[in-house]
Amino acid sequence: MPHRQPGTSLRVARELYLEVTKDPSARPVVVASWQRSMEHKVKSGSLDAPYLDNPNLESPLARAALPIVDRLHEQLADDPVSMMITDRNGVVLSRKVSHEGLTTNLNRVRLAPGHVFAERYVGTNGIGTALASGRPVMIAGLEHYVEALRDFHCAAVPILHPTRRTLLGAFNLTTIRQGSDGMLMAFARSVAAQIEGEIAAITSRRERALFHDYMEACSSVRPGPVLAMSRDVVMMNDQLSAAVTGPDHDALLDHARELADNPRAEGTRSLALPSGRVAELRISRCRREDSDAGAVFRVRLIGRPQPGPAALVTTPVRSDLGLVGSSPHWLRAVADSRAEFVAGTWLHLSGEAGVGKRTLVETLHRAHGAGRRLEMMQPPLSDAPAVTEGWLHDIAALLAVPSNVLVLRDFHLVSDQLRQRLRKLLTHLDGTATGQLVVTSQPSMAGADDQLDQLCGALVEVPPLRHRHGDIELLARFFLRKYRPSGESRFSPDALTMLQRCPWPQNVHQLESVMRKLARRPSGPTIHAEDLPPECRVSSHKVLTTIEALERDAILHGLMNRNANVQRTAQDLGISRATMYRKMRRYGIVPSNLT
Predict the structure, then answer these.
(1) Is residue 291 classed as helix, strand or coil in its secondary structure?
(2) Cα–Cα distance between 67 and 88 in angstroms, integer?
(3) Is residue 243 scored above 60 in pLDDT?
(4) Is the whole model's pTM more than 0.70, yes or no?
(5) Phi-psi label, residue 257: left if phi above 0, alpha if psi -120 to 50, beta otherwise
């Protein structure tokens, strides 16, 4: 291909296309694709199809399409035709081909599962152009923008959601034969229609099943407020929509969505609403055909709405214990912990890392532990018999003193064998004059330990920061004043919005760290969104190691300096574009959120 500066007009793209293909009857859809390829700065002389680990084979598209493609593959055995399913981003989810020669050619150009064939990476091609244009396309021979693909003939058809008509992905047929373009396209259209029909059937069966369970709950003898939810559907009866409004409505849907997305979430859960009421949710899973269709929630509202705080908060709200926060869920956890601590009950505090379990215990001890000694112990660093024996001996010695308060931190890190030995020790001590025991653990990492909870006498769940939406501003102001006592600062609306949208995977500990960094940097009286560190701009709930956090921040800083240009940022960091996208997906980085 002649070297030419990339242009952005259709005229330049058409001229380049005619120069390469010598085809005077250039199709507009192909020329428009060449134009986009030039704007994406795709190199025609080299192929760069990024690779992503673990393509999602559990999506509705994959579940519907893969059995159909498997059946057709048996019928086309030994024919030099490959069938592929891609998601809406051009990631190849599945490839079926039984012709050895074609397999070799496809592998040579990386047209295989996990690789991305969107136009922005490989230019004009069947998959990428069908997804970009939203219409069935046939891309044959020299119509491909990248030279390495010009041996192939590809017929691709977009696959749309049957009701929402949103793009789900594409079905693609690829061959090296010439003269069969019409048959290829007809076959591709037929298969795409079959896949859409199967998606419609699966969706319909699941939605009908969820609707059936929802109506059954609504028509029971005493229905009350009812909510049904899946990834695509939200249904609520009039009783619920009338009883729960405003912030309570948003909080209820947010928590219910987390529960509905977790197939293991069943039973009864309690949720403190912003108004001060408590919503008791009785969860029933809707399971059909070995798949989860969502959940039905029977809702019971307890209490009456309490007067809310003033709309303009100027000082952090603090309880009589000195703990910042006014969300009902947090206040209930504090009140329950306080009652059990004062009563001397053995207590189990469960909550994600950084929610403030240790701070809560230390605060309760300062307020109600006069004359009592607070001791904290971590799990043993080794499972060696001498180490574990010493650890158990220390616990027994500390609990033998009635005036001691012993906190066993990070109990989720204790091995199953050591847990059993500890339970025997605690069972032996139970009922005698002992010190008070407080156990802290992370619920996502610790398995159910009913015997321990029975010994402890009380279990209190400390809520994550993302469930304390109204407290984020209060805590941010508190920490900013703590680390910048001499300065007056306030947050702009865009900065507050960004803080409240951040998932805070490390909870209050992470928010404090962010405010401490802000306080150390010179700034004006108002903190804007651009003043916040990059970690406030991600959507991932994953807790990162120190090295991972440094890598994430380097990527975020690079993208922000390059106006969210992924390719140039990857070049600056010395990594491939495929690696860049894989890390962005891992860290929850969305380029559009950075501009």
Answers:
(1) strand
(2) 19
(3) yes
(4) no
(5) alpha
